[in-house]
Amino acid sequence: MTRWCAAAAAWLLLAGASVTAAAQTYQVLVQGVPAGALTVAAGADARQVQVTFSYRDNGRGPDLNERFTVDADGASSQFRIDGKSTYGAEVREQFDVVDGRARWAMPGDSGDEALQAGALFLPVTYTSAYQAQLVRALLQRPAQTAAVYGGFRITVERVAGHTLADGSGVSLFALSGIDTAPHHLWLRDDDRRSLFASVDPGWALVAQGHEHEAAPLLQRQLQAQGERLRTLQQRLAQPLDGSTLIQGVRWVDTAAGQARGPSDVWLFDGRISAIVAPGTLGDQADQVIDGRGRTLLPGLIDMHVHVGAEDALLHLAAGVTTVRDMGNDNAELQVLARRLAAGEIAGPHIVAAGFVEGQSPFASRGGVVIESVDEGRRAIDAYAARGYRQIKLYNSIKPAWVRPLAAHAHRRGLRVAGHVPAFMRAEEAVRAGYDELAHINQLMLNFVVRAGDDTRTLARFNRVGDDGLALDLASPQARRFLALLRRHKTAVDPTVATFEAMFTQRQGQLHPGLAVVADHLPAGWKRGLKQADVDLDGRKARRWAQSYQRLLDLTAALHRAGVPLVAGTDDTPGFTLHRELELYVRAGLTPLAALQTATINAARVAGIGERAGALAAGRPADLLLVDGDPARDISAVRRGVLVVQGRQAYAPSALYQAQGIRPFVPAAEIRRSAR
Question: Are 285 and 140 within one domain?
Answer without folding.
Answer: no
